[in-house]
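Re-running F5/8 type C domain-containing protein to confirm reproducibility after the cluster update. Everything else is unchanged from the original entry.
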Amino acid sequence: MILKTNIARGGKVTQSSLFGPGVPERAIDGNRASNWVENSCTHTVNDQNPWWRLDLQKTYNIDTVTITNRKDCCPERLNGAEIRIGNSLNDDGNSNPRCAVISSIPAGISKTFICNGMEGRYVNIVIPGRQEYLTLCEVEVTGQLSETNIARGGKVTQSSLFGPGVPERAIDGNRASNWGEKSCTHTEEEQNPWWRLDLQKTYKVNTVTITNRKDCCPERLNGAEIRIGNSLNDDGNSNPRCAVISTITAGNSQTFECNGMEGRYVNIVIAGRKEYLTLCEVEVTGQPLGNSNSIGNL
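Result of re-run:
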């Protein structure tokens, strides 16, 4: 069995308040000792919505969070706590997306929660909606450093414009997927609508992640194609195909593996029918091609 590195050990921690010597650092001391007198458990005062936060210092795709509950007293205090993961410090990080709700962890036991690669720099554990003490005897986290989203530095265009749905919205770094949140693109209803990202130089593209609209009509994206290459023939839509999007659930983000396909342009096109094209975020990972001088550094 390969033991994954506990990335929590290199982080920085804080919490909503301090009871006695129960400093937040105790939860990342590498010690699952779970009796209070062993000096390895955190402790807040009896706060409304008490929380503990780990700053990983960099953004990670988080696979698991393992929490050890106190053994010698009151394990039920942790019931209903939430694990939140993300990059925001709004509400002290407690409003980041939720990985899991802790229904209960038996006294002195360590329980692992699967977070499926959720992206974030901050891991919060918060007890919402009531006044409580928060005690954690260990928090362990596994994951990988998040790859840079190279789409953010690109330039974008699309086949037409419906309302304020400009193509730049798909690379604004925000996966918000309700139209009213002003983060989704929108073309007119047209034959073969498309959106194109110019990465400014040629990359070997590893992945393309697309976020679909949540509040309406997710089926519009069914059958769209991801095209990657260096040609602008047919507006880039005739470049080699990375993937066909069979379907993406409303509001969800799906990652497509492109296995190092080379290209400066990433197109998303709905071929063969009249449709609206809406994209709430497009994220791309990859490495610059060794020699891109022929393309020029614009």
